[in-house]
Every structure is written in C-alpha cells, then in structure tokens.
Fold this protein.
Amino acid sequence: MSGYVIAIVVAVALLLLGLSVKVVKQYEQGVLFRLGRVREVRMPGLRLIIPLVDVLHRVTLRIITLPIQSQGIITKDNVSVDVSAVAYFKVVDAVKSVVAIENVYAAIDQIAQTTLRKVVGQHTLDQTLSETDQINIDIRKILDITTVEWGVEVTLVELKDIQLPETMKRAMAKQAEAEREKRAKIINAEGESLAAAALGDASDTMMAHPLALQLRNLQTLAELGVDKNTTVVFPAPLMSTIGELGNFLAREASAVSAIPAQPVVRKEPVNGGPVALPR
C-alpha cells in the first residue's frame, strides 16, 4: 500500500514540476499572472512558476506581417478602385498587448482596413497612383496613434496592389498613346525646322554662286542617269542652264587657246647667237 502512495506522490510531484517549468524563447517575453493579477514580465530562458496559481502568457517580439485584404474604395474624384496593402508591426510592450486588448492581431487588421479606406478616399486617382509613398506614411502614422495604447508599433505600411476598372484602364492607355504621339510630333517638327534652316543656308550659298547651282543640277542628272531604264524629261529652264554652262566652258577654253606662244631660247654649241623656236 505504501508503494502505491509513494508512486502517486512521485507522479504528482513530477506533474507539478512539469507544470512549473516554462521556457521563454529568445524572441519572446512572458507576462506572469498570479491569481489573476499581473505579477511581472519574465525574460527569455528557463522560468519557474507556481502551478495552479501562476499563468504565463508568452508574447512574441518579432515583426509580424499582416496582409490587408483588397477592398473597394471610392477615391476623391469618384473612381472605384480595389486596393490591397500589407502592414508590418511588432509588440513593444508585452503587458499592454495582453491587458489592453483581447486579440491585438485581429484589432490591427480591422483598424488597418478602415484606415486604408479613409486615407485613399481623401486622394484622387492620380494622387493614389503617384503618391503611394506619402499614402503609406499617412496610414502608418494614423495606425501608430491607435496602436500605441495596445503596446504595438507599426513599422511599415505598403500599398500592394491597386486594381482599376477596365474602362479606366482603356482611358489611361489612350491618354498615354496620345502623349507619345504628341512627343513624336514635337520631335518631327523640330527636325523639320532644323532641315528648313539648313536648306535656307544652302539656298543663300547657291544664289551667291550661280555656278554652284548649275553644278548641282548636273550632279542630279548624273545620279538619274545611273538607272538605264529611267526616262528623264528636262524642263526648258534646266536645258537653258545646261546651254549657258556649256557656253561658259567654251568661252573659258577659247580664252586659254588665244594666249600667244612664248619663244623658247636654245643655246647652240657653235659660235652664234641664240635661236628662238616657237612653242
């Protein structure tokens, strides 16, 4: 009989010992309640409590990722968009996170959704698409004001996805295409302006030197003559230009041939004066 008693006592002692030993991990803190009241905060390591008297709530201090589900939001300019986000937070006061609120994770999820709807609703569609960084900061500040009473710090909020209606997507695509066409026309107009200026300079040069214009016409004719199957009809002004150029070249040749020949003086090996030979 005494053996059974000893066995029961040993079993109860082992059970109480097992209930009294708690392990708090490195990324946790333990909030100790004794008879329903907060006694202290236990740091990481092997901790002992009084069974049936103490209750230890372990609270993680790691950063927690909280997806904020997509929801339909009306922007300031009355455009319906579906916006989803993600929030990152961590517990900075273990006691408040246990005592001040029943389920801190569910509470942050709900307050994040309402804050997202409120902040995005204060911006137009263009602002929502272009000022996401500022919207993220505004949401985080509003969440911090609320969650600081729960012992929680929101470290970061990011808009994850913004879904537009199909009609709005098509309108934005047309706007982008029109903007690209506008830039192309501006570039084309600038090129034509530069080309016109260059042609004006060339025209002034040719007007100052008529022969250069005639040579340019001949060069054009030579380029056209490369293709043997091409028939070219010359206008009368161009033919007169060619005739004038031919007359000019003929006059130049006549002027060169009209120059008198200079005598050539050659010394003879015999006694006598120099003999002049015609060139």
The CA atoms of residues 214 and 244 lie 9 Å apart. Confidence is low (pLDDT under 50) at residues 275-279. The beta strands are 21-24, 28-34, 37-42, 45-48, 54-60, 64-74, 80-91, 152-163, 264-266, 275-277. The helical segments are 2-20, 94-99, 104-121, 125-130, 132-147, 166-208, 210-224, 236-257.
